[in-house]
Amino acid sequence: MNYLLLENVSKSYGDKILFDKINLSINKGDKIGLIAKNGSGKSTLLRVISGEESPEGENAKILVNKDITIAILKQDPYFDNESTLIDAIFDTDDPKIKAIKRYEEALVKNDNVELEKSIAKLEDLKAWNIENEIKEILFKLKIPELDKKISQISGGQKKRLALAKIIIQNPEFVILDEPTNHLDVDMIEWLEEYLGKKNLTLFMVTHDRYFLENTCNRIVELDRAELYVYSGNYSEYLKKKAERTHNEATTIDKLKKLYKKELEWLRRQPKARGTKSKSRIDRAHKIKEKASKAIYNDAISIDIETKRLGGKILELYNIEKSYGDLKILEDFSYKFKRFEKLGIVGDNGVGKSTFINIITGLLKPDKGRVVIGETVQFGYFAQQGLNLDQDKTVIDLIRDIAEYLPMSNGKKLTAEQLLEKFLFSRKHQQVYISQLSGGEKRRLQLLTVLMKNPNFLILDEPTNDLDIITLNILEEYLLGFKGNLIIITHDRYFMDKLTDHLFIMSGKGRVKDFNGTFTEYRQFLKQEKNSDENKTTENQSVKDKNLIRKEKKQINNEINRTLKSIENKEEEKQKILSIFEHNTEEDPGKIAELSAKLDSLNKEIVRLENHWELLMEKLDYLESESN
Known about the structure:
The protein has helices at 42-50, 85-89, 95-109, 112-125, 128-140, 155-169, 185-197, 209-215, 234-268, 275-291, 352-359, 394-401, 415-421, 438-450, 468-479, 492-498, 518-582, 588-626; strands spanning 2-13, 16-27, 31-36, 61-64, 70-73, 173-177, 201-205, 218-223, 226-231, 314-323, 326-335, 341-345, 367-372, 378-381, 404-406, 412-414, 456-460, 484-488, 501-507, 510-514. Among the domains are: 80-169, no CATH class; 239-269 and 276-291, no CATH class; 314-516, Rossmann fold, CATH 3.40.50.300; 548-626. It is globular. It is 48% helix and 20% strand. It is an alpha/beta fold. Helix 9 (234-268) runs antiparallel to helix 10 (275-291). The protein has 18 helices and 20 strands. The protein has a six-stranded mixed beta sheet with strand order 5-6-7-3-8-9, with helices on both faces. The longest helix has 65 residues, at 518-582.
């Protein structure tokens, strides 16, 4: 079944063509990742697909299947600040989700009467399995207390809230713009698994390459205003893209040779010629146009001659650092070896950036010594970035640091050439920094660090706001970097590709040296967890059975009490009915009183019978759990 169809869709801003007569078909079950350089039109394409912007072109068509539900996750989702999280998450017409909202509100308000009614409604709709699934989603995405107002949560929490809302509503087609932003590794791995199993259709933009690898079955690339479609995940895309660029390069090389011949022919011709010559001239211009098509190769080697490192690099002796009761480092010692490539891993708030500031001398430890080798020259790319002079052009900013970098072959790499390698064309180098996008500024800040030619690089979250193509270039540079490297990043792919061991900061001042990649560390954690779970399974099973036995006994007692109450109420009811049947001369006031009593008894009997049914269903469930 076709969900969405794009035909001959174009879009441009001023002279810049973002995409030109592109075609795309999205079918049921497709899980598509969109890849492109920053500024080439990814977000615009998402807005066109979602209907926020209109396509351009006479024959442009966007056909959307009207029989499916569609949900969109924006980079910066909007919520009413005065709404509660419950209102935001459960804003839907789905009766089961509305019943769950009623149940959650009763829990928050501790309203027992409403709670009993909402439980009955959930039972009636058979919605307990959905309620359990929603609880898991909220838990996995670390959504805070549901009675909080939107104004009380952070931007990252809003993004997770929007993601949770989409998953809960279970649409058939989902458009996701950077879904892994503001998610920790546990959340990302859970989301990968969830989306992989779920029978839904995806179209998404993400810079997380493992996410693309583990989730997608198609990749589309927006490159020089054209859309290229590849079947398979990220690794398949890399293989097929390499084949495409090779074929294009071969074709362009042939066209250049042909154009040369045509140019020679044109130069030899007299000025006045007939139609045959004119058609050949037109053909030559077309060949020139195709031959001048630039092919970008993201596997660029940047072989910089790094300043020599001596024998002593960086030595830490018995380092301790705390902020009040929060212990960052406790009696930590380590000697760095030449050319180490180290990753630092830990939850937010354990002190990774503090650790870096101590290493670089920006922060003094409470105790211990930091000894830095004489030849060491740090290059530090901080998470918050740098304050760039907005009134300077891109090239002037880089030239102020250095005119060129020495290459290992004895040649020089000029500031212009380095900028070109990091996707700043000569024309773009003349642009003022104030006119750059967030991703371009981030890329430029990184270049200001690299241009100083350090031999000990420290990168704190360098991948934020960088597109996949820029990440590949940066990785290629760092793989050839002849110096020491420390990386802090949430990008699992980047960490795996560049580091050979990890410092694990687990809190309370503890730092463990793990000899392996980040993926190997995650596997180690899972094995450790499984081992612990296996050890406790038998004991837990006995405990669970005892708890179930105890709960069954309590429920049986409650069932007996409920049945006894129903029996008593039925006896009272029969007495009143008997009075009505045999005493026809009763006082009218007395009859009214007995009628009210009868009505009350009937309602109470219905309530008790419903309660009995719920208890019996709960007992059946416990019976199945104990078997």
